[in-house]
Amino acid sequence: MFNGSTYKRCACKEPALDSNGQPLLHSNGKAKLRQIGSDCPLLKKRDHGSWYYYVKLPDGPRGERRRPRKGGFLTQKAAEKAAQKLWDEAHNGIDVDSRETVEAYLHRWLKKRVDLKRSTRDDYEDYLNRIFIPGLGHLQMRELRDRHIQEVFQEIWELNEVKKANRLAAQHAKEACDAAYKAWKTAPTPRPPELRQNWNAAKAALKEARTKPRQDTGPGRQKKFLDTLSAALQDAVAEKLITENWAKLVKIPKYERPDPLVWTDERVARWRETGKKPGPVMVWTPEQTGQFLDSAVEHPMYTMWHLMVFRAPRRGEATGLPWTELDMTKGTANIVETLVTNSAYEVWEDTPKSRSGKRTLTLDSATFALLTAWRDVQKAQREQWEAKHREDSDKYGPYVNSGYVFTQPDGRPWHPDNVSQAFERLIKRLGLPPIRLHDLRHCAASLSLAAGLSMKAIQALLGHASYSLTADTYTSLMPQFEQAAADAPVDLVPRRGAAPAPTEPDGDREPVPAPEAAPQGPPQLVLVRNEGGTSSPAETAA
């Protein structure tokens, strides 16, 4: 049991008296007041005043007395329970005297995390300053509970509903704007001036609607928010500032990593009809990949994209590949650094995402030949640029000997965002089903899997630290191989024979000879063996 006491007091006041029993006055002549406290005669009433606790804790490390007090409890039992909890926390090593706020602690925690990559630090700083410090920063660390964190996410969900309404309003404004434009465009000349006025008003309304926030904070982003706070609170538990990691008790929508989907003919047709992608992560078929590569041959980034299609470096790993890590004798590329960018369009060098991200890629013969030719092209570009610089130094700056494999004509490396934008523009111009530049890694994984590579080899190719990540997320079977896998078990089952084929068989199926006559009986379903080894049901007599 705690060492201390509980007592009751109130906020009632009475005139303050001097040693002679005379009222003390302020400079303005008004009487000074003092709190009666525990001497108030009304404290005997149950609903008057509140209960306090007073705890005697062991002295601090420098011999300072520690006697915490706290009031505001409705009952003596509640005060005793709170005092016991404080006593237990103190004897378990918790710093019960700490008055550090959540804001002060989060700033201190982020400052000591010198182990973070710059991009990760930027994300953490954004999440803490934008989400958690405004909602939790005023609380003391000892006061923080899971319900406070839950309320922060409740506000996020409520804002998502507002964003949903904003998206709907923007959609209606777009439809109204299109209708107003069509009415003006199709009107016979001379067009009535009110049609133009209506169109201008609709454009202004659409512009206003699009200024409001419309992008949801989805489950994936919410998980990143909560994981960041959880990491900070876990260190607070280790420091004995709090008893447990309250973030682990918070409930948020479940996040499921999107599975890659292949652009089948049916999905392509639906996309061309509606303009909507079936999923956020899409993968080209080998035919679509070949169409892209054939059409991109003349593009300045073709060699880089070819490398990404077949050897799967990330965008920053490809743009940050230096010639010093490309062995043109052995035909290998060492992935040891990457170019990273942020929302401010800044670029800097960093190490790959994980320890396994540092890897050596063996180049295929086609990519090796392209890199050999590109090296000569880059040398020619340098000579041409230096000649232009000598002729007109005001227009052409000096050549930048950056040492990167994939560079612009002046020697500077490509900005990673520019590579993504150029890729998106090209596939849009070609009319190919859309994928992200990062999805070329999924294409490389799928092609490698279809070619017979083991999952372990694909994990090494992609530079994943987790085998399950490769198996569950970064590989998509091509449709033709899925069909072969589905037919394989059927081919293992021996059957006595097949029923006659339909009178009008499909064009790619040949009629199967009828079996010998059998006694008549009730009709049964049997399987018709097709040319490809597949089977289909047919009705025959037993």
TrEMBL record:
Source organism of this protein record: Streptomyces regalis
Keyword list, A-Z: DNA integration, DNA recombination, DNA-binding
Name the UniProt record assigns to this protein: Tyr recombinase domain-containing protein
The cross-references to PANTHER family, in alphabetical order and at most eight, read: INTEGRASE_RECOMBINASE PROTEIN MJ0367-RELATED, PHAGE INTEGRASE-RELATED
Which stretches of sequence are listed as region Disordered? 489-542
Family to which this protein belongs? Belongs to the 'phage' integrase family.
The GO biological-process annotations, alphabetized, read as: DNA integration; DNA recombination
Q: Which PROSITE patterns match?
A: TYR_RECOMBINASE
SUPFAM superfamilies noted in UniProt: DNA breaking-rejoining enzymes
What Gene3D superfamilies does this protein map onto?
1.10.150.130, Intergrase catalytic core
The residue ranges of the Tyr recombinase domain are 279-487
User: What are the Polar residues biased-composition ranges?
Assistant: 532-542
Any single GO molecular-function term of the entry would be: DNA binding
Q: Where is this chain compositionally biased, Pro residues type?
A: 512-522
User: Which CDD domains does this one have?
Assistant: INT_ICEBs1_C_like
